[in-house]
Amino acid sequence: MRTPWADGPEYVTQCPIMPGNTYTYKFNIENQEGTLWWHAHSRWLRVTVYGALIIYPKAGSSYPFPKPNVEFPVILGEWWNRDPISVLNQALFSGAAPNVSDAYTINGQPGDLYPCSSQGTERFPVNSGEKIMLRVINAALNQQLFFSVANHMLTVVEADASYTKPFTTNIIMLGPGQTTNVLLTANQAPGQYYMAARAYATAQNAPFDNTTTTAILEYKSSGKGTASNSRPLLPRLPAYNDTATVTAFQAQFRSPSTAKVPQEIDEDLFFTVGFGFVNCNPGPRCQGPNNTRFAASMNNVSFVLPNTISLLQAYYQNIQGVYTTDFPPVPLTQFNYTGNVSRALWQPIFGTKLHKMKFGSSVQIVLQDTSIFSTEDHPIHLHGYDFYVVGQGFGNFNPQRDATKFNLDDPPLRNTIDVPVGGWAVIRFVADNPGVWLMHCHIDTHLPWGLAMAFIVENGVGKLQTVEPPPTDLPRC
Asked: H-helix or E-strand containing 446?
C-alpha cells in the first residue's frame, strides 16, 4: 500500500532498469497470505524472468485448513526456441500475430513428452498418506492453461493470495498471472503419476501451442527400479476449447466468509476489451488479416505507453503533455459487442488516456469481451488492488437482467479475472491505494497491441492515505 514506485511496469510506475544497474523494490505486505509471483514487466522479458512469491501466515497463526505435510511451488511457463524478444519484434514489425511457443514448462522443465528433456523432468517426491499443497502459478506469457494430476483430486483453498471456501475438482484452469493453491492427498497406489498442463484456447481460427508439459508426482515407497521402467499415468485433460469445464470450475470460487463488497457505487465503469486492426495504407504490406496490423483496445482506445518518463513520475511531478485524463468511462459508441460488429468500429484510436478517481471511491467495472476478429477469454489484471468478482456471464452484459444475479455476499477476491470468451465479468473494489495503476490483459501479446489503460487514484487525507516519496535509486530514463 502507498508504494506504487515498487510496482514495476515500465513507463507506468518506473523507467526500465538499464543494463548493469540495480533497483531495490521495497514495499509492505498488508492483509495478504498465500501465493503471488514476481516477474519482469518490460516487453517479453518475463518469458524467463519470474518466480514464486510466497506469503506465509503470521507467527502464531495458521492456515484455515489442516497444515499440509509438504508444499511445492508449481510454476507453469512457456518456452520459445528462438530469442523471444526477436519473436515479439518481428510481430510488431509485420503487424501479424507472433509465432506461438514451442513448449510449456513446469518449474523450467518441459517434461518427458518432449524429445529434449526427459533427464530433467521435474519430480515431486511424496510419502503415502501425506497431504501436499501445490502452489500453482501460471507464468506463461500468452496462454491460459488447464492443470491436473493423474488419479488425484485437488482441493482448491486459495487463489491470488486470497483464501477461498474449499472445493474439490480434478481440473483447474489458470489464466496468465493467476495463482491457485490446491491440496492433494497421496492416497493412490505407490508409483509415479504425471501432473500435466496444456492450453485452454478460445480465439477462433487462431494458432496456439498444443503441446503438453508434464512433471512427475513420485511416491517414495514405489521404488525407483520398478517405477522407471514404465511411463507414469497421464491425466485426462479437457479439450482445448472446453469453455463449459472452465465455467463450471470458476463458478465454484467463493470467499470463505461474508465479504466486504462495496454496496453503493461511486464510479460505475463499463470497459469493452478486445481486438482491433489498423490499416497499413499507405506503407509496406502488413501481415495481419486483409493487409492490416493487429491492435487491441479498451473502450476503443489502444493504450500507448510513454517512452521518456513514467506516468507515475509525470503525475507527481506535474509534468504536462505525457498523458490525458479523458479515458472514456463507458464505450463512446454502444453496439452489439459479441455479435456482428460493424467494420467502422474495428480501428481503435491511439492515446495515453487515464481515468482519475478520488481516494476511497467505491468502484464497479463491467469488463465486456468483444467479437472484433474473434471473441476470446481475456485474463485482465489490475495492479495495486484485489477486487471482488461479483458476476460473470456470456453475451452482452444487461444491467437490468444481470445485476440482479450479482453475488454480493461471498464473491471471490482476485487480482486477475478471466473475462469469459464472448462474455463479461463485473468487479468491485474500493480505491484506497493511491498511485497510478495499470489495468491490462495478461496475455502479453495483447499488451503491446494496446489492451490496457491506467487509473490515477488521488491521495487521501494524511500520511496513511498518501503515496510515499520516490526512492533515491528509482531508475532514470
From this structure: helix 446-449
Q: What share of the chain is helix, strand, coil (3-state, %, to 5)?
A: 10, 35, 50
Looking at domain 267-465, does it have CATH number 3.30.70.270? no
- Which residue type occupies 275? F
Cell of 420: 469469459
Question: Which amino acid type is present at position 220?
Answer: K
Look-up of cell digits 490483459 = 441
Long-range pairs, 18-25, Cβ under 8 A, ≥24: 18/475, 21/475, 22/473, 23/473, 23/474, 23/475, 24/471, 24/473
421 vs 201, 207, 242, 331, CA distance in Å? 10, 16, 11, 19
Distance of CA 253 to the CA centre of its chain: 16
Which helix (H) or strand (E) is 198 found in, with range?
strand 192-200
- Residue 437 in 3-state DSSP? strand
Write down the pLDDT at residue 359.
Answer: 98
Q: Domain ranges in the chain? A: 69-245, 267-465
CA distance 386 to 443: 19
Tell me how far apart the alpha carbons of residues 77 and 148 are, in angstroms, rounded to a whole number. Answer: 15
Enter the C-alpha cell of residue 428: 468491485
Query: Does the structure show a pLDDT above 70 at 283?
Result: no
> Alpha-carbon dihedral of residues 455, 442, 319, 471, nearest 10 degrees?
100
- Give the strand pairing for 179-185 and 267-279: unpaired
Confidence of residue 224 (pLDDT cuts 50, 70, 90): low
Question: Residue 159: is it exposed, middle or buried by C-beta count within 10 angstroms (0-12/13-18/19+)?
Answer: buried
Check if 69-245 and 267-465 are the same fold.
Answer: yes
What's the grid cell of residue 380? Answer: 485482465
Confidence check: pLDDT of 225 > 60:
no
Band (pLDDT 50/70/90 cuts) for residue 160 is very high
CATH number of 69-245: 2.60.40.420
Given a cut of 70, is residue 188 above it in pLDDT?
Answer: yes
pLDDT, tens only, 444-467? 999 999 999 999 999 999 999 999
With helix as H, strand as E and coil as C, how does 53-81 read? Answer: EEECCCCCCCCCCCCCCEEEEEEEEEECC
